[in-house]
Amino acid sequence: MPCTITLSTIPGRKTPFGMTLALMGKSLDRRTIEVVSTVNDIKSAVADFGKAVHQAHPDESFYISVSIAKGCRKPNGYDAAQNKHELGQETYMKMEEPE
Question: Is 15 exposed, middle or buried (0-12, 13-18, 19+ CB in 10 A)?
């Protein structure tokens, strides 16, 4: 069943222990995708969005948040892909520099 998602960036960095996100930080961009039906549709949307944001802001480190519209049903396999970090949301996160 088709669904609407919103993609947005959250400033953040990878650390040796996981990742650090600046939840109150400024988002670089936001995009609403009207129709997605599968996890692969979401992966593709995340990849396209991330590439566009990275081209516009090559020095920035960011995580891509995926929000599914209220009332929409998540595609089969979404939770598993999310838990296994298979959606590509961390692709443009840089490793935190040691101090």
Answer: exposed
